[in-house]
Amino acid sequence: MRRWGKGLGIGTILSLTALVLTVIMKPQSPSEDVPSPSAVKSVKPLEAQVWLTTADQTQLLTEQQPVMFTDGAPANAGSTQQDRDQEPVTVKVDPDTSYQTMDGVGAAITGSSAYLMNQLSPERREALLNDLFTAEGINLDFIRHTIGASDFSVDESGRPARYTYNDNNGVRDDHMEQFSIRQDAAVIQVLQDIVSKKKDIKVLGTPWTAPGWMKFGEDTLTGWYLDYTDRKNYEAYARYFVKYIEAYAAKGIPIYGITLQNEPLFTTPDYPSMSMGAEEQALFISDYVGPMFHKAGLSAKIIAYDHNWEQGLEYAEKVLDDEGANPYVDGTAFHCYEGDPSAMSEVHEAFPDKSVYFTECSGGEWSEGFGDNLSWQMSNLIIGAPRNWAKNVLMWNMALNPQGGPSSGGCSDCRGVVTIDPQSGEVTRNVEYYVLGHYSRFVRPGAVRVLSTQQEGRIESVAFRNKDGSFVLIAANTGSEDTHFKVESPDGQFTYQLPSRSAVTFTWKT
Q1: β-pairing verdict for 363-364 and 414-415
Q2: CB atoms within 10 A of CB 73
Q3: Which candidate among 70, 182, 250, 271 keeps its CA 20 to 30 Å from the CA of 79?
Q4: How far lies 454's CA from each of 67, 280, 451, 478, in Å?
Q5: Cα–Cα distance between 373 and 405 in angstroms, integer?
Q6: pLDDT for 11-68, tens place per residue?
């Protein structure tokens, strides 16, 4: 090996030294100023995670390959009508335009649902609750609870049960000394287990009827209305709500809010029910419930209406235009059985400082097609309700048996979010499970809805920004053909092919 300098004269060495010094001291031009490899950081391309549910059920909230954002500028519309017709549907997400803050989605833990859950083996029951209420599954955040019996309430043997928390054999008890929630034991057991898994779960209470001795004309739980000729009934009933909230709090179950009456414009002799006109509800809130909640130091929200989209604006106007009731009312609640979601926007436009809630919709055997149900529920509930200012979405029964029961005089062909077969212990996830899951697995409480465009009848969408800065875009193809669409946001753009009557959720974080 030849060593450095061996065989070189002193003059050669001096010349080489001068050359090296010249190179070292020579100023570098900007083009020569190249950072060292250690200073170069690799930038990972932004990608969106993807979860898909298809009408043929081959994909059921199944994670797909991520899609990559590109930096391509938003495409301009074609110069001709033919060019424009050939362009994909474009969904634009604008995080700088925001709307309501979300509470979450879920369903009702009715007496029937609790009964079926408690029939499962301890292992299967635990697995089901984890699947519904933790990040192991769809991670639901909101529950509806029936104050007393509903059309899906049963006793410990699964037989129909009709009761309130103070029936007292028809004897008046204005001070609620005989008030008791002991007949809710099965429901309380389930709710306590849910709260143990999710401390911040929201529980909304709703009565189907007041105690019969408060009603006009006869002591009945099925139909009729409060005896308005004796105002002591309103005072006693307001105290009933206070006792309910306090009793459940004592069981470790905080009540987030109440509505005053389930479906107040409908009564039936077939199951617990009661009518309550808008003017009466305004009076009840302004003179009784509101002041009594304030005196008791209760923070539970008071929510008006709780019936179909169809007559919501008229009812809400009569309650919220009342100067006495308005300050106590947090908002209005809606069901899906008549009308369409735009009614909620009408109420929001009339009363923009009040919240909008969506509190009931049930699937059933009247509509068996998975794809049709997925398409309708995504369009009207998961997408349509938030786009029309609802801050939550609630289905009806969380669980029913294969026969749609056990019921107590109500719907005979309803479907739960899951079906529990008490004979085999098998739990079946229904379309409602996947509909809720496309939201609840990804959109967390406190998320804010942000602007997203859509094309109704083809690609419909709703978008959210979570508190951690991540984004969620939920899209549904409600049309009859597979559709190619493009998503544009300030972070870039990507394209996706969505099968007919299918749903997809995208998530990303910059």
Answers
A1: antiparallel
A2: 9
A3: 70
A4: 20, 40, 10, 11
A5: 20
A6: 433 343 333 333 333 444 444 444 444 444 445 789 999 999 999 999 999 999 999 9
- pLDDT tens readout for residues 469-486: 999 999 999 999 999 999
* Options 87, 123, 136, 263, the catalytic residue: 263
Question: Quick check: is 136 catalytic?
Answer: no
Which long-range contacts link 401-407 to residues 24+ away (Cβ below 8 Å)? Answer: 401/116, 404/364, 404/365, 405/112, 405/152, 406/112, 406/115, 406/152, 406/154, 406/158, 406/159, 406/160, 407/112, 407/151, 407/152, 407/160
Residues 6+ apart with CB under 8 A from 21: none
Looking at residue 367, what is its pLDDT? Answer: 85
Q: Output the six-digit token pair for 396.
A: 């009806």
What per-residue confidence (pLDDT) applies to 77? Answer: 40
DSSP 8-state class, residue 7: T
Residue 5: pLDDT band (50, 70, 90) is very low
Is this model's pTM higher than 0.70 or not? yes
Q: Of these residues, 280, 360, 432, 488, which one is catalytic?
A: 360
| Contact residues for 55 (Cβ-Cβ < 8 A; gap 6+) | 370, 371, 372, 374, 375, 499, 500, 501, 502
CB 329 within 8 A of CB 319: yes
CA gap 325, 341 in Å, rounded: 25
Per-residue pLDDT at 344: 98
